[in-house]
């Protein structure tokens, strides 16, 4: 199949330079750490931009950088069910991840495209293209709020960013078969919410997209002309990244 290049960056790199990394590590903290290790690696050493996919085989809760456990999480239920509660380095809200929740991460030099210059233009630049890819299953998929994807007015994807001087980590989730009852079990009704939510509970605000995860990965990778490579991922950075995540994930409630 011949891929069609959709756009080019000012530096002359087109989307075929994205390196595709479809890699899920055994433990939740390792998967969060790898996103951050990829960010640091590109910041310090340069190289090709990366598109990564992963999906954990166990449920766990992830707080945004400024989120509060007391505000967002049913701590007692999480402890009873043995769920980890971790804090990522990026902003955004608290999410439940695990089976049925496809995670993706773009690690891109800020100079790669003009729309990566700030948070809002980056959201639009990436999410409008993902929305277009997902419309083959759900024609009503659109960017809603600041950084959500929704089908009509029901959310299927939340996203967040971590920005350094030269690189942006843009990562998010797509719900493909995670039931809303699980989300309601472990997460409280959020204190912060986009206007389009209209204070709806998780059960009437969140839904899944009826599409297989492998097919979702394929169309997103195809949209960005991301290609698998045999390049090594930054294993040496992982212990330090894991330690940092565990340190900032201590209960602050």
Summarize the structure in words:
The chain is α/β, with parallel strands linked by helices and 253 residues long. It has a single domain, classed as 2-Layer Sandwich (BirA Bifunctional Protein, domain 2). Helix content is 31%, strand content 23%. The chain has 8 helices and 11 strands. The protein has helices at 28-45, 69-72, 75-81, 119-134, 180-186, 202-205, 213-223, 238-248; strands spanning 19-22, 50-54, 60-63, 84-87, 95-97, 101-109, 141-144, 148-151, 154-163, 167-175, 227-228. The strands form 2 sheets. An 8-stranded mixed β-sheet has the order 7-8-9-10-6-2-1-11, sandwiched between helices. The termini are far apart.
Q: Biggest sheet: strands side by side, in what order?
A: 7-8-9-10-6-2-1-11
CATH H-level name... which superfamily? Bira Bifunctional Protein, Domain 2
Termini gap? 52 Å
Number of domains: 1
What's the helix-strand series?
Answer: EHEEHHEEEHEEEEHHHEH
Structural classification = alpha/beta
Query: What CATH first level would be assigned?
Result: Alpha Beta
Gyration radius over CA? 17 Å
Helical residues, percent? 25-40%
Q: How would you sum up the major sheet? A: 8 strands, mixed
